[in-house]
Design goal:
Length: 212
């Protein structure tokens, strides 16, 4: 299983250690009314915002017996990035492959723990809430005023890119991003001008555009 978090600018975090479990909470919205001779009745509304949560840790050193890859990020820098994302108002894309989780989210809560007998490691609990696009309109906009002509912010994510790391192959990159290594040919066809004639020769630092 691979868990990645990506912002609209292409910044990406691949969680190095899989959690033991992932919780997904769904609720149905209700509004309660008091009816004479009937008491309380619940009128259902739409589905409430979904929550996704899991716990794991960022190790100070890579151990391939439990790490997903070797070049793991610095734990403290990664926690700072999560804090920055949590304070921003833009959604992130959370992908959990090979599951069907591929949604826009915001970080609802982020707790970290340091253990005395494991120096450098950082344990964390993360909770995400699914993002729902909305727009607050002014009275002038509703009445057709000049403000209505202003363009609505584009929340569509920019095309995904991947920066090649040491030891990467197109098959591994396809497996990480799409859950199937067989899609390596799609990546190569889109980036042949960058990679060159041999798809087996990719270099660290190359930025590849991911197919939709």
């Amino acid at each position: 299983m691979d868990i990645t978090l990506e912002d609209a600018a292409g910044g990406k975090l691949w969680f190095p250690v899989n959690p033991t479990e992932i919780g997904i909470r769904r609720e149905r919205g209700f509004e309660t009314f008091q009816i004479i001779n009937l008491g309380e009745i619940d009128v259902p509304h739409g589905e409430k915002i979904k929550e996704i949560s899991f716990s794991s840790f960022f190790p100070a050193e890579a151990d391939l017996s439990y790490c997903r890859y070797e070049n793991i990020p610095d734990p403290q820098q990664t926690m700072n990035q999560l804090n920055t994302w949590m304070s921003e108002r833009q959604p992130l894309r959370l992908m959990i492959t090979p599951s069907e989780v591929n949604v826009l989210v915001i970080i609802a809560s982020h707790n970290s723990t340091f253990r005395a007998n494991e120096p450098g490691d950082v344990y964390f609990d993360l909770t995400f809430r699914t993002w729902k696009d909305y727009q607050i309109r002014s009275v002038a906009e509703l009445s057709g005023g000049a403000s209505a002509a202003e363009a609505r912010p584009d929340l569509k994510p920019v095309p995904k890119t991947y920066t090649v790391r040491s030891g990467d192959t197109l098959w591994a990159i396809a497996k990480l991003n799409f859950g199937s290594g067989s899609r390596w040919r799609d990546i190569y066809d889109l980036n042949a001008a960058v990679i060159g004639p041999n798809p087996d020769l990719i270099s660290p630092g190359q930025e590849l555009v991911m197919p939709t």
